[in-house]
Amino acid sequence: MMRIGTTTLDELGRLIFPSEIRNMLNWQIGNKVNIHYVDLNTTILQLAAEPIDDACNICGNEKMKISIKGVGICKRCMDQIRALGSLRLFSE
Ligand SMILES: [Zn+2]
Fold it and tell me: Quick check: pTM over 0.70?
């Protein structure tokens, strides 16, 4: 692990990262950053993965093909939902 800078927690609980450090880490304004606790002396900041807009909202499959009322669902999940509907029909 290598220290690349120091910043101060302000009165509102914010940390300011100088542009040199943001550029070095390829952090952009609006990026989400995960905070990982290791121990009392060590905390790790990690750029969060970008959400994939086309991913299925049920299983996360990146090949979402169907959108129902604005909710993206992949074909596999849609088939499973259809199968559940068929099961209900048979049980009634
Ligand atoms: Zn799915």
Answer: no
